[in-house]
Amino acid sequence: MYFARKLKSVPYVARTLEGGECERLVVNLRQLDCTTYVENVIALYLCIKNEKTTFRDFCNYLRNIRYENGIVTYPTRLHYFSYWIEQNTLTGIVREIVPQDSSVTEDSEYDIYYMSSNPEKYPALRKDTSLIDDISEMEKYFDGKTYRYIPKAKLKNPESLQAYIKDGDIIAIVTNKKGLDISHIGFAAWHKGNLHLLNASSIHKKVVEEPMSLYKYMMRHPSQTGIRIIRVL
User: Fold this and answer.
1) CA distance 13 to 210
2) Rounded to two decimals, what is the model's pTM?
3) What is d(CA 68, CA 71) in angstroms, rounded to the nearest whole number?
4) DSSP state, 167?
5) How far is CA 200 from CA 13, 65, 182, 184, 213, in A?
6) Out of 70-74, 99-103, 193-197, least confident range
7) Average pLDDT, the chain
8) Other residues' Cβ atoms within 10 Å of the Cβ of residue 101
9) What b/e readout covers 188-203, taking b as 16+ CB neighbours within 10 angstroms?
10) Binning pLDDT at 50, 70 and 90, where does residue 20 land?
């Protein structure tokens, strides 16, 4: 939470990882989108936690958070946040918190295909169409798999979720947009019994701690259906 709040007011800029001649590790704390915000905060935290505080250490953590096996190529970047969760769980950086109370969660089946179906929206895929097959393989990895999430209606009574969600947990917002899994991420922040979102906001054009509760925020976005909780270890 210390680093998450230190970056408040940093401008929101989308697609800061795109547009280069080739894939490389982008380090940019002057402009953040929702994913790079979370990744940079975690990398800073890991530096302090493990007492490795050189710039090279920071870059090593960021690379291993952002890329499968720390290998910097476009296909190994963890484009879909569900894949990001799986890979960062395998490396021991995070784990997903799934409430055991079945009345709090619902099951859903993955249906991921957005990138391979819309390559024109991604500069790297427009430039090199052979990469589309690699992205498609990442998407097919989720075929037939399911996940559990907390429907946003459950956020109306946040006291029932305090046992599961802590300050600093990553909030991954589930979407019903075709071909996507997660549409937005940020950090959980409790205020007087209400759950709020600390995030790099395209609405506010900067990193903010949302003044309204997460429930009210999500009710304004019909495509947002619920949340998944990811805890940094």
Assistant:
1) 18
2) 0.94
3) 6
4) T
5) 9, 18, 15, 9, 16
6) 99-103
7) 95
8) 10
9) bbeeeeebbbbbbbee
10) confident
